[in-house]
TrEMBL record:
WD repeats lie at residues 28-62, 63-104. Pfam families: ANAPC4_WD40 (PF12894), WD40 (PF00400). Keywords: Repeat, WD repeat. It comes from the Eukaryota. Residues 118-191 form the Anaphase-promoting complex subunit 4-like WD40 domain. It comes from Hydnomerulius pinastri MD-312. This is Anaphase-promoting complex subunit 4-like WD40 domain-containing protein. SMART domains: WD40. PROSITE patterns: WD_REPEATS_1, WD_REPEATS_2, WD_REPEATS_REGION.
Length: 271
């Protein structure tokens, strides 16, 4: 006789903490965990950057004021610095403990939409609304590479997502046009792409009608071994790409879109 229980198990995901205080300060545009997971950084449309305790839900220290609005935020792996970007076209570097501005870097020609920090904390990549990507040294802000307007259509090439490979040697760029490209960090050269991630996108269609996909968002992430890249797109699809050939791997996964999270296990991706 089987000893297994026949009772159903409720697997519904429930929040363990709600930080409702942020609602009165504007829509949350970005979020990033500090190392250890005990604190989280948020940025909002009113320009405020805040640090929260993930156990108590209490805000730590005074908010940092980026400006009228801040659209993206990233934190260094050593947990000492926060970097933010927004419509003022500036990357600002903040001290995690004092909440003071350490550095400000210019160079972008339009609103900064996305930002990422390399695994070794040595480089920062930021992308803007006009398709420009700047890779800099994380200390001092010295520019290593400019990559300009990669889709060739102003206003239809926002860099919505940036992601360094696990070894830091490549960076993936996803545009709101539904295109994905991979660049070599050392040289700034394009090594793969464009890959057309949108369910309805093709090279021929994009050439003649790029504006139709101007609001396609493409968050993405690398596999732990760097051999695959996962992109989320319209049509509730997740696609897997071979990062050596640029070819799609298997059929698209269907169900969710707009955000992805990789498990510590190399075999699991959450959407």
């Amino acid at each position: 006789m089987s000893t297994k229980s026949t009772e159903s198990v409720d697997r519904t995901m429930k929040p363990i903490l709600t930080i409702a205080a942020q609602l009165q300060f504007g829509v949350v545009q970005g979020i990033a965990y500090l190392p250890g997971g005990e604190r989280v950084v948020t940025c909002s449309r009113n320009g405020a950057i805040r640090v929260w305790n993930t156990t108590t839900g209490e805000e730590e220290g005074a908010p940092m004021d980026h400006g009228d609005r801040v659209d993206c935020v990233a934190v260094t792996k050593d947990g000492k610095r926060i970097m933010s970007g927004g419509p003022d076209k500036l990357v600002k570097v903040w001290d995690v403990e004092t909440h003071e501005v350490l550095e400000e870097w210019s160079g972008h020609e339009s609103s900064i939409e996305s930002m990422t920090i390399s695994p070794d904390d040595e480089l920062v990549a930021s992308g803007d609304m006009n398709g420009m990507v700047i890779i800099r040294e994380a200390r001092g802000g010295k520019v290593k590479h400019f990559m300009r307007n990669l889709d060739g259509n102003w206003g239809a090439s926002e860099v919505k997502s940036l992601c360094f490979s696990p070894n830091g040697e490549k960076v993936a760029l996803a545009h709101n046009t539904g295109t994905l490209r991979i660049f070599e960090v050392a040289t700034g050269d394009l090594v793969l792409g464009p890959m057309y991630c949108s369910q309805t996108m093709s090279e021929e269609l994009y050439e003649y009608w790029p504006w139709h996909w101007a609001f396609t968002s493409l968050p993405g992430l690398w596999s732990l071994d760097g051999r695959r890249f996962f992109s989320a797109s319209d049509g509730n699809t997740i696609r897997t790409w071979d990062t050596e050939t640029g070819d799609p791997v298997g059929e698209p996964w269907r169900g969710h879109e707009e955000s992805l999270c990789r498990s510590p296990s190399p075999l699991t991706v959450y959407a």
